[in-house]
């Protein structure tokens, strides 16, 4: 396989013109290494340093030293100063850009809020699982509704036992209170020398005709 022939970097006037054109176009400070790298070694690092030193001597480029780092920028006096009209137009563009940036920030905020809401919501898999659970519940309720509409009411043995227990407890309380009420009325009417029926009539009370010793639901 043939080896790729290495192209030598520019030197002398060619290197000066390449670097000067680059600095004028970019109009920002660079180190010699940065310039060589950005030009993809069209000018080697060594040649770039030598060329920049020459351009500084020609008063085409200004050199500033920051610690051990030397940076180069093209002389600014070769650029035309903008007129007052151009400056005013630039100010308008700046204000327009500020407004546009503000609008984009607000849109970005809204999108971020929507994204947070989506991240907090259920995933598709979770939604499908929840829908299946709800479908099963709906099916059970529909079957129960159908049963109720048919006029039949089926209860489980556990429900029946619970109802019987409530009934027995309430019937026991009813019997105790009815017997207690009868004893109190008898005692008061006796001291008043009245019949219990007359005393109850005076108070507007009515006697419960159901015999508390007999279960009224025994035959049901």
Keywords:
220 residues; two-stranded antiparallel sheet
Question: How would you characterize this protein structure?
Answer:
It is built from seven helices and two strands. The chain is mainly alpha-helical and 220 residues long. It has a two-stranded antiparallel sheet. It is rod-shaped and about 140 Å long. The mean pLDDT is 80.
Describe the structure concisely.
With about 220 residues, the chain is mainly alpha-helical. The chain contains seven helices and two strands.
Total number of β-strand segments? 2
Shape: rod-shaped
Helix content: 55-70%
Q: Major sheet: size, sense and barrel closure?
A: 2 strands, antiparallel
Task: Please state how the strands of the largest beta sheet are arranged side by side.
Answer: 1-2
Look at the helices and sheets and give the structural class.
mainly alpha
Distance between the termini: 108 Å
State mean pLDDT (0 to 100 scale). Answer: 80
Number of helices: 7
Alpha carbon gyration radius: 51 Å
What is the string of helix and strand elements? HHHEEHHHH
Are there runs of 5+ residues with pLDDT below 50, and where?
Answer: none
Strand content: 5-15%
């Amino acid at each position: 396989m043939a080896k790729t022939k290495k192209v030598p970097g520019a030197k002398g006037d060619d290197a000066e013109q390449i670097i000067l054109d680059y600095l004028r176009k970019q109009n920002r400070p660079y180190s010699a290494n940065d310039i060589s790298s950005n030009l993809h070694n069209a000018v080697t690092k060594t040649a770039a340093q030598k060329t920049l030193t020459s351009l500084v001597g020609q008063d085409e480029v200004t050199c500033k030293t920051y610690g051990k780092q030397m940076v180069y920028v093209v002389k600014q006096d070769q650029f035309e100063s903008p007129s007052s009209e151009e400056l005013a137009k630039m100010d308008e563009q700046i204000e327009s850009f500020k407004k546009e940036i503000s609008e984009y920030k607000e849109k970005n905020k809204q999108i971020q809020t929507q994204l947070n809401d989506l991240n907090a919501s259920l995933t598709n898999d979770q939604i499908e699982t929840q829908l299946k659970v709800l479908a099963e519940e709906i099916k059970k309720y529909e079957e129960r509704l159908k049963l109720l509409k048919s006029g039949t009411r089926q209860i489980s043995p556990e429900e029946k036992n619970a109802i019987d227990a409530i009934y027995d407890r309430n019937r026991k309380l009813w019997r105790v209170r009815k017997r207690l009420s009868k004893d109190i009325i008898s005692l008061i009417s006796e001291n008043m020398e009245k019949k219990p029926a007359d005393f109850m009539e005076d108070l507007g009370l009515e006697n419960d005709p159901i015999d508390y010793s007999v279960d009224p639901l025994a035959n049901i």
